[in-house]
Fold this sequence. Notes:
The protein has about 400 residues and is an alpha/beta fold. It contains 16 helices and 13 strands.
Amino acid sequence: MRVAIVHDWLYVVGGAERVLREMLACFPQAEVFCLFDVLPAEGRARIGLPRTQVSFLQRLPLLGRAHQAYLPLMPLAVEQFDLSGYDLVLSSSYAVAKGVITGPDQVHVAYVHSPMRYAWDLQHAYLRESGLARGVKGALARALLHYMRLWDVRTASGPDALVANSRFVARRIRKIYGREATVIHPPVTLSEQPLTMPRGRHFLAASRLVPYKNVEAIVDAFRLTPELELVVAGDGSEAERLRRRAGPNVTFAGYVSDAELRRLMATARAFVFAAEEDFGIVPVEAQAEGTPVLALGRGGARETVLTQGPGRTGLFFDEPSAEAIAACLRSFVATEGSFSRAACRAQAERFSAERFRREFTSFVDKQVATHGPPASARERHVYAVEMVG
């Protein structure tokens, strides 16, 4: 089979790009298409990314910093990819990739990281955080998002099968698209070091420092618990404001390498996570280092953190507020000895890359067998290609 993988865009290595890496491990012969590709060489090496085929957006300025401005052009751009020569199309979609055009004799499996959150249930939060809740610009933004929702629903019927990265996203897919999705959790890089590193005194928060990650609430919680120490790893638009807001018991490490992040995880008393994520790879990585997780009890965290029984791996707080997080911190400190490094590692192993490759390859094989053209059609196609050749 000729295989194409369509990914939204490439400019940083995040959770979606880790899924792309494992898709390429499953189908190493695949050719990769994306709207634009400005990924640095280090990121390409981490993914094992071959040469990509890009859309006309690649020629537009400021792609790495202001690609959101090109959102109105993205549906048009993804529809211009000519994939007619491929038997199998895999899309890795958190925006528009699933909307690529395929024919009746092609099999299209879409791995949906999430329907476009900023166009659906997070629209109002997105508009507030972008300063677009009112005024002429706000009205234009609402009109654009309305158009994106119409296009998003229309193209949801195109793939032969949908895969969701969590049960939480599968529920969103059912509500928005009216389709069922099979859940295959994304791959998590497991720790290779033994669970023997000594615990430090610090708790850890690690993410991009942007509003929806709710790091502000974590920082404020440590103002309410001055006897505890917090290390914040990551950078972003909120960094300077959070530094000014933090108490003396909070240290900002800035951007750190993967190796340093894993060290901070392995030596932390617990990892604190206040965002409502579709899945949330970083809390699983913390558990892979044997570290319990204190998380907002919404979204994908409910599928990755165990809060009951002798093998529990963390605690939930009900809302992303300083008071709720501080109460969770105190509950954890009171029962800290009941959490096991081995239990945390065992929970993380349920989300390994090997497991993802096995489940994803098996699922795609079944879809090819179910939705692919019958043998006679494949034979006619091969005959036609040979005659043209």
